[in-house]
Amino acid sequence: MYHRMMKVSLIIPAYNEEKYIGACLKAVIQNAPDIYEIIVINNGSTDTTSEIVSTFANVRQFNESKKGITCARQRGFVEATGDVIAYIDADTRMPHGWYETLTTQFTNNSHLVCLSGPYVYYDQGSFQQFLVHLYWYVAIPIYRAIGFMVVGGNFAIRKEVLEKMKGFDTTISFYGEDTNIARRASRFGHVQFNMKFVMYTSARRLQREGFWRVGYVYVVNFISEALLHKPYTTTYNDIR
Predict the structure, then answer these.
(1) In a domain, 239, yes or no
(2) Which has the closest alpha carbon to 91: 21, 191, 166?
């Protein structure tokens, strides 16, 4: 089939992720065994992240000394050689079917420039899971009204589109970077937020900072970036 020929580069930024990166890479290899390339961007880690990554023979690793998620994503874009560049976080665990959804959507829709979907938290209680599920369904009408939405740790974009966009805005430190990508990509085609394109991830930020606070900060920055073209929040905490 044609989608088997699609070259997908998977980029995983990592900063001090020794607790998560091994499980992340194992899930990728298990659920996307024929993916074109896997690239980890080591963003100045001081723990054993690099050593753990080096035990995976088919994973390419690059060091990016300039700290920040957008700098790491940009380095991944520079190093990637695939037709589509996918981004996940180091604390994610790719589920079965994720890679097939990606290749099918991009193959069958020539107008699709960027694909994203929701998180499911693998280390949260049932009530918190319910709240998160409710959050995503409340977000869908906003997405449909504005026309774009991306989750930073779960999206894929055509490389040619990212080239036209001149990559990531590295002046953004953390919050709003995903909406910035979604907004700029929407100028070149369809940005799809697909509820079936699910990525499992850690709830460590929700657990540390609280569900309502995290939800509020993300909503405020989504609105600010979407309407004013700049994030509202300029500082963030590394949660490890």
Answers:
(1) no
(2) 21
